Amino acid sequence: MFPKNAWYVACTPDEIATRPLGRTVCNERLVVFRGPEGKVAALEDWCPHRGAPLSLGAVVDGKLVCGYHGLEMGCDGKTVAMPGQRVRGFAPLRSYPAVERHGYVWVWPGDAAQADAAKLPHLPWADDPAWTFGGGMFHVRCDYRLMIDNLMDLTHEKYVHATSIGQPELDEIVPQSAVEGDTVVTRREIPGVKAPPFWAAAMRGNGLDDSATVDRWQRCRFVPPANVLIDVGVALAGQGGFDAPAAVKTSGIVVDLITPETETSIWYFWGLARNFKPEDAALTAQIREAQSKVFQEDLEMLESQQRNHSAQPERALLSLNTDYGGVQARKVVQRLVEQERAAR
Amino acid sequence: MFPKNAWYVACTPDEIATRPLGRTVCNERLVVFRGPEGKVAALEDWCPHRGAPLSLGAVVDGKLVCGYHGLEMGCDGKTVAMPGQRVRGFAPLRSYPAVERHGYVWVWPGDAAQADAAKLPHLPWADDPAWTFGGGMFHVRCDYRLMIDNLMDLTHEKYVHATSIGQPELDEIVPQSAVEGDTVVTRREIPGVKAPPFWAAAMRGNGLDDSATVDRWQRCRFVPPANVLIDVGVALAGQGGFDAPAAVKTSGIVVDLITPETETSIWYFWGLARNFKPEDAALTAQIREAQSKVFQEDLEMLESQQRNHSAQPERALLSLNTDYGGVQARKVVQRLVEQERAAR
Amino acid sequence: MFPKNAWYVACTPDEIATRPLGRTVCNERLVVFRGPEGKVAALEDWCPHRGAPLSLGAVVDGKLVCGYHGLEMGCDGKTVAMPGQRVRGFAPLRSYPAVERHGYVWVWPGDAAQADAAKLPHLPWADDPAWTFGGGMFHVRCDYRLMIDNLMDLTHEKYVHATSIGQPELDEIVPQSAVEGDTVVTRREIPGVKAPPFWAAAMRGNGLDDSATVDRWQRCRFVPPANVLIDVGVALAGQGGFDAPAAVKTSGIVVDLITPETETSIWYFWGLARNFKPEDAALTAQIREAQSKVFQEDLEMLESQQRNHSAQPERALLSLNTDYGGVQARKVVQRLVEQERAAR
Lengths: 344, 344, 344
What we know:
Three copies of one chain form a homotrimer. By secondary structure, chain A is of the alpha+beta class.
């Protein structure tokens, strides 16, 4: 149950730097690679000759060469050549729209005619030298919607992330949520608190006094099909919070790009974009390591929750005010899926 | 195929000493924990909020706090509180009768109205200072009835446990079996033999000459739903065997408490209770280690047998006189299951 | 989808040297062992007493003794004895025809009445002192027909085995194929080339100049149900190739005996028979090691191809001229399976 007419992250560029990559996206088994002039391409991972995965092959002169018998495949899914064979009649492979942008390779697993690069999510920090980014990827065995729920209701930080980003005041603030077209925003402002360990370390890295009282904020934005971008930060108390001057705050954007692999597993691309000390690679590595630990704390919970849901798929869940963001995001997704069904 | 209106061991106290435990008993996914005043409790392992397993949470002030968003659950399955929420309307969880007794935590996975602590198995040694106990637990992938068969027909000792408790004379003695209501007893007396290695070591531990000729006995008692208690021992030959004076014998009770996890897997709680040198902790550790090795010898056989049965579930088995104990135990279980069916 | 009225390799003699072996052949779970006078036997791996696998037992005085309760089984599937029991009425096990020949233990998983040792594949080198053999066995998760395809179309050597037996000229030569009754032969002659690394090493081992120009040949012979025997070699150029005098060539027979375990897994017995320097055990070990590496290169491809086929079982494959050998072999197998169906 996921929209297929949408852009999903297939991989990061380093994953296809030296060889093609086999990856399942929305139940489609793909091979992702760089064709002529390094342009990214995605095809069915199936050699038209004997059904071997093309991802076990190699890219030679911009063509994807099957590792079994040397069939040469073009980016459009048409066989270019094969030793000793005439290939004109070979059935073409399905080709998936693919675009490299914002530091990711995106694919469109649905109807290629509707693919439009203008529909890619807008990640302005990715191409702005005043910003930097560090992140990673996890494979998680859960429905992608459980991950969206997780990210749109940050009251879990107090419990799951008690030693890093959680703090007692978190669930005393009722979040404010709003639906804006297909996007959903949930905001929480936590004024006059001490920074929890993750943010204290970030303040130190940014040259701020980590013992100061701060105003903290979280603004979670769900963007379909399965992306959550979260403005997060702390500012010295009383300086305007989110709107405080750069000199008194430490902030960034938590980036969560979720790609369903199957109905119950995901590729989870995560990271933090920041505009303080962007040139400090050691700080980037330190933040990335801390964030990796935080997200790993979620994995056991999400996979256990999925096992529970799989055992009792019909059992009802409660939707409280804190769940509003996730519930609305699910409604958006549901509507998109129904639109796709109706159009077929 | 197991009685559900019965007490089963869910865990030992050390398994819930510091945190709740998730455990499946008779296909029911439970969370077991200590509530107010340390009283044990068992509930469905499902948070009524979003279906996360409560076993990933923590016990705080006698309440089970969900590790995801902090819902506080009581021992009765009713939500006590949740940060920022009114919880009165939250659907209650199913609560399972739970009792701590004889060094185990017992749960009743069936109809709570029929649960009665008086139906717990009688393990008098557990609370008698003249006795001590050492044991452990294994997870085994087999139908619990294969384990009962194993324990009610000890002719397998000669083959499976040739180097520990087996001895050539074992299968020369035809066992005597009897059904007493819902219990089944199989006895075997082996007069005038040398003690096999396990018992020779126990005799040495008990200050007896391990080279002496002994009379050996085994009295296996099946107690439903799935417990087998075995009086075992050796006495200097001609002194009365089982009834010999304490000074000339070394004996104990093999304790086998079997809890079905699913139709084809069990939690197997095993141990030895003894009334010789109960204060000798080193001897307890040594016996426990030896017994652990003996029971591990059974595991490969039982799991392989289960794989064979799963591959050919309809294929008939032979029931010989040596199988009488297991066959009668299966009949008791079958009758109990049919009674439960009829009552529904 | 495999013929069952056929001889398949169950194991090598060393696998049953000290104890019985449990092995599944064509979906039949077998125990293979040596009975009286060391004669090989194969039975259902199921003790008629309680369904334990007999393969966990031991052979004692030519009888297979169950490792659980000591039932003694004869090679004909009839219970010989059991401690304390009369066994005349015990249901017999199915016994499978078994023969030891050519260094292998062969079983006939189908109708025993049709088993005939005369139908065993002819492997004359196995019993000829002028020849020697080195080989091994792999378990591979693929349909046995994918392995036959692999062996009957050696154009894959250039891609899968680029650093050992592959060479650029391989796919420039169109192979010649022919069907001879139930066997299929595919020939390829590659004149005037340099020996690839595997063959260069073999030439050195055989005392030939490994830098010389050679004529190379491959003659793949499929013999049902699932054997492929390949005449391979190199001779100094212009000396007659396959027919060159022994002094100027290095050659052998690649032996591939494939036993389906299930529809999608095989036991793959491979090796090289050679008639040069048969007494040189170090050379045998060196060739065996090199060949093991070559065949391991195929495993990832075959198992990945199988996963692709399992995901899209109805998807069509192309059958090119290079696939002729495998396609014809599949037709032979198909015809044999249909003959078996018609006869039932």
